[in-house]
């Protein structure tokens, strides 16, 4: 049996296989949080379910700032929120909410 890496969603704090989550990283030059669909960007990543509820929870609770260890410089801008809410551009199918059978 093959080992499946497990990550924790910063929105709902539930653990899931990393293939079920999207990875976001802080991009220093643009000073914004960006989606890393290929999981290749350098640096610390924050993992998130590709559902609207998890994205909204992560933004409201400032989970990205903590997970990416951004300190006081890491407040989300309106641009970051819009980018994260564009779930259709992510590499996973869009779902409105998570269900128990996932």
Characterization of the model:
This protein is α+β, with helices and mostly antiparallel strands and 102 residues long. Helices cover 22% and strands 20% of the residues. The chain is built from three helices and five strands. The chain has a three-stranded antiparallel sheet. A two-stranded antiparallel sheet has the order 1-2. A hairpin with a 6-residue loop joins β1 and β2. It starts with 5 loop residues before the first strand and ends in a 17-residue tail after the last helix. Mean pLDDT is 77; it is low at 91-102.
Summary of the model, kept short:
The chain contains 3 helices and 5 strands; from the N terminus they run βββββααα. The chain has helices at 52-60, 63-67, 78-85, and strands at residues 6-8, 15-17, 22-27, 32-35, 45-48.
Number of helices: 3
Average predicted confidence as pLDDT:
77
The run of helices and strands is EEEEEHHH
Widest β-sheet, arrangement of strands: 4-3-5
Q: Which parts are unreliable, with pLDDT below 50 for 5 consecutive residues or more?
A: 91-102
Please give the share of residues in helix: 10-25%
N→C terminal distance: 21 Å
Q: Tell me what portion of residues adopts beta-strand conformation.
A: 15-25%
Assign the structural class, choosing from mainly alpha, mainly beta, alpha/beta, alpha+beta, or little secondary structure.
alpha+beta
List keywords for this structure.
single chain, 102 residues, alpha+beta, three-stranded antiparallel beta sheet, two-stranded antiparallel ribbon, 22% helix, 20% strand, disordered C terminus
């Amino acid at each position: 049996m093959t080992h499946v890496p497990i990550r924790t969603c910063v929105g709902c704090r539930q653990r899931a296989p990393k293939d079920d989550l999207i990875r976001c990283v802080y991009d220093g030059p643009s000073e914004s949080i960006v989606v890393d669909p290929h999981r290749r960007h350098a640096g610390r990543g924050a993992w998130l379910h590709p559902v609207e509820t998890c994205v909204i929870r992560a933004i409201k609770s400032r989970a990205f700032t903590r997970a990416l260890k951004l300190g006081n410089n890491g407040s989300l801008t309106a641009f970051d929120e819009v980018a994260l809410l564009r779930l259709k551009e992510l590499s996973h199918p869009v779902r409105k909410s998570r269900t128990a059978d996932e």
